[in-house]
Amino acid sequence: MPQAHPDLAAALIRLGRIKYDEVDLDVVLSTIAQVTRDTIPGAGEVSVTLVRGAEAHTAAYTGELALRLDEWQYEQGRGPCLDAATTGAATLVPDMSAESRRPEWACRARQAGAASSLSIGLPLQEAMVGALNIYAAAPRALDEQVEFAQTLAGYAAIALANVHLYESTAILARQMQEALQSRAVIEQAKGIIMGQRRCSAEEAFAILARVSQDSNRKLRDVAESLVARAVNGRD
Length: 235
Description:
Shape: elongated
Largest sheet: 5 strands, antiparallel
Number of domains: 2
Radius of gyration: 27 Å
Helix content: 55-70%
CATH class of the largest domain: Alpha Beta
Strand order of the largest sheet: 2-1-5-4-3
Strand content: 5-15%
């Protein structure tokens, strides 16, 4: 008889409580792993695999067992978590003792204490893919959890997309603020040069650019230095 699924709403509330202005990607990934372990019936340990190009690593895990099982797959260059990450599909290993597709890894997993596993592909950024990996101590413990795990993984992917969007927006805002500050101080420096040299704005900017190039310093740094000297009453 299939296990009754726990309240999905409770898991979503935990994911929804993430404050993207207070945490980074690592915290979000760790929260996803912990929520998954607490929510999926039969789950022993959980990890999140991220793959960029040919490089794969475990970005979050609830226990050393999950980390070891992931890393053995990375060493071999194949395994359920890599298959799920690259295809985006669910990869179920119902019983490690009967796994014929990856016998060496399954044998090591069984010896380590995992009797079954389920990996769900996570849609992430274009340059990165991932998988949510669930390891169980009993065979066929996850057979009835595939659909539920896929639903949870879908919401987890939304959380990851949100933190990426927030970080990207924050970076853009910071860059814009820095650009505005740079422009302001450069305009101040141009005004000082125009007053001293009785030259045009274009000529003042050319002077700043030449000093920047000759001294191998950023234009903003040259401008800030000139403004600071003017404020302090030095030539």
